Amino acid sequence: MKAYQKVELASNILIIVVSLLLGSILVQKYFLAPSRTLSRPNQIEPVIGSKVNLPDVAWSPQSKTLILAMQTGCHFCNESMLFYKRLIEATKDKNIKLVAVFPSSVEESRAHLDSLGIKNLEVKQMPLVAIQVRGTPTLILTNSEGEIINFWVGKLPPEEETEVIEKLSS
To answer: Tens-of-pLDDT digits for all 170 residues of the chain?
Structure first.
């Protein structure tokens, strides 16, 4: 009986040690790892000063171009449609171009925008990584040369929406 108790005790200790080891690995990997949002070693995002690779866009007739990188299935994009309508209104009489870029076809993307009440927006199709975008929605503001002067990622809070509109006006 004593041998059985020793084996049981040893196996319990082994289970505890293995559990602690696995727990420490999980904590280290998911909670103590350096944040990718701070170090960004492999993150794709627009770089201020770099030129956007967007074929068939005439940059120079406009003083600025605002690129709206979206996906049809992105709920944050859909939740931002009222803001995009405000952007269209804010740029109506200004020398600013708005271009929506989707990874899906132009026809599908245009139909999606139409269904959400967004009309008269130039739509382009291309992989979002080609314009340095990893997440949607992403807004990229360029100058008349197609160089990035500012960008915003994600669904914006009201103060950042105001900042975008102010940047367009300045």
So the answer is: 688 888 888 889 999 998 998 888 877 777 765 444 433 445 578 889 999 988 888 888 888 999 999 999 999 999 999 999 999 998 888 889 999 999 999 999 999 999 999 987 899 999 999 998 988 999 999 999 999 999 999 999 999 999 999 998 88
Q: How many independent structural domains does the chain possess?
A: 2
Range of the domain at 149: 64-169
- 8 A C-beta contact, residue 157 and residue 143: no
Q: Which of 129, 145, 166, 144 is nearest to 46 (CA)?
A: 129
Look-up: residue for tokens 């997440």?
A: 135
Query: Residues 95, 160: one domain?
Result: yes
Tell me which residue of 129, 142, 158 sits closest to 60, measured CA to CA: 142
Compute the C-alpha angle 123/109/130, nearest 5°.
60
Residue 104 phi/psi, 5-degree rounding, is -85, 170
CA distances to 3, 4, 6, 11, 57 from 17, in Å: 21, 20, 16, 10, 61
pTM comes to: 0.73
